[in-house]
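FORM 7B: Structural annotation worksheet

SECTION A. Query
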Amino acid sequence: QVQLVESGGGLVQAGGSLRLSCAASGFIFSIAAMGWYRQAPGKRREPVAIITSGGTTNYADSMKGRFTISRDNAKSTVYLQMNSLKPEDTAVYYCNAGPRSWSPSSSWGQGTQVTVSS
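SECTION B. Predicted structure
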C-alpha cells in the first residue's frame, strides 16, 4: 500500500529556512505526480506545491519565489525547500501522492509540523 513519511519540520524564526522531505513507497514513484499541502489551526487544508512526473512544478501564489518543490526518483523522495518563512506559514505540512491539478488524492502522509516564530 502507499506509504508517505514526511520529515524535516520544526521551529524556525521568521526569515529562516526549512527543508521538508517525503519518502514514498508502495507505488511507482517515478510516474506519479506529488504534492505538498498544509493545514493551519482552524483552517482548511490548502495546496502548497505540485510536481509532475516530468518535473513540471506549480505553486500556490503565496509560496511563489519562496518555496521550491523537487523530487529524486532514485530515492522515491519529494522535497520542499522553504525560504523566507513567515509566521503565517505555520501549519502541518502533508505530502500527497498522485494529485490531479490541485486536487489531492486520498494518499496522505502523517504530516510534519512547521512553526515559524515572529
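SECTION C. Observations
The mean pLDDT is 96. The longest strand covers residues 18-25.

SECTION D. Sign-off
Analyst initials: ____
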